[in-house]
């Protein structure tokens, strides 16, 4: 990543935003803190990245976040109906269930916590080894115009080696971090069970029919369930029914044409988030009115994304939006995100998510969000900032091992000067700030001999398109897509074929996805991906059939926001607490996408507790199916009831061991007679099923 620091990420709260477009102390307070507005000391990010910040703090997530305080612990924390830190609602005696951190109840034959941990511990076999059990976290649970030739010795400032005085990056990038995680003992266990080699068939259905699943997994080796898990944010009965009725090929084709899929009621309700329909200029001019309504654009774009992940029928599209939000990452929480992140979501990511990646990268490099996020707006020919130029190569195209060197970064930074943001918040090209002179970058050569805006911008666009179509970029995109959809250790055979498809189709994404879904590697990889915290929570909402309508119990205690808006914010707060939410990674590389990066026992238990809250209907901003009604006709014996409830929630049977553990949670045997409430234990039983490895896998 570029130089020493991450981009500006201000502390937050719900008390409004100031609409500034530049990096200035803006007076936000952290949303989990009661600290007053403002910074006590000068913000470390003013004017771009600092090259001199050392020593660097190494965080548990693998990144060095210089200049930032260490994050607080991610222990379980109550998120009540009114948001983070609010008191829990009163519950009747004996209702609900204790958190898993409570002591076991006296006299219980099988302690609830021990049973749940034992059940969740079987996630160690999700990819065929004791990966989770191996982790310590789980064990612990128990100037002058410059012109000339940039390829020569002429520089604009600083030294010949570093024209801006900045230092090269030393932190791990997305690819390096994934590889580092997978090089651990737990990662090696996963690699041993990953499928290797394969071929491409005439279509997805043909590949599914011809592929035999040989890996060890607790998941049912059902191609329809496998497709639904990988291409959605969680299996629902409706998704399964749609795939069965349309057929695998037709369903995938329909998902690749999201514009033809009607919006759901929940998507239409996004209109209740007032900032999501406003332009950048409207957000700037209506700042005071929006503050009065408690509207925060950079948080509402996250709310809207969560809504679509849970309720949209355009599920593959939303999965790809999330993919690009990690690959071409611009955090929502940056100083400028309140004005520009919604537009970046709509005009860059969503516009091109299933289209052309070169066009997406060109559009991103002209968008104020990226220009501010990586300080390009501050870069001019006599004071060059390398951040965006570096990330364009290192993260957004060829990758850290893609063949570029420091002179390539320097020359790219010189070529990209002139792009900025005007006082009205619009993209502008400033010809007077543009470096004029020959450049050579990773095999790309251009005379760049004109400061005419059209010609200068055309030169930059040509370069951006060049690196977006570079063979190293093709491999990087292919590797990332295969990691997202296939396994944490995707076979080289598949990556090579996807990279070739990317190149042949000039960076168009749909052909690459069709090649991926038509591969035997995809269909052979059942059980090879684990849901990250955000994905686990979204899948829980989806499988429980939560409705976006407010429940009768909702007291509408916030007259500034509708129940729907408040409910989405509660989900976002919980995702923040779990450590992952849309557009949430502060660094430009996005969230890691391998299982070993997320093996936090505390996060896992916190997710289970949240599942219990949802089953019990304590989040009153939405409507829930009563747990005793999840199964239409509950069987009369405990064992049969568990079987039916598992089929309803995870769409397959449990193993005999898992079933016995869940019966232990309720303190009954398989032959015990039970009523629809499971003799009062239905919420605990349903939560235990959602703690199973089958629900953690995708």
UniProtKB/TrEMBL annotation:
Signal peptide positions on this chain: none
One Pfam family this sequence matches: DUF1800
Protein name according to UniProt: DUF1800 domain-containing protein
Residue spans of biased composition, Basic and acidic residues class: 10-29
TM ranges: 115-134
Keywords: Membrane, Transmembrane, Transmembrane helix
InterPro entries associated with the record: DUF1800
Superkingdom of this protein's organism: Bacteria
Bias (Low complexity): 84-98, 151-161
Region named Disordered: 1-108, 151-170
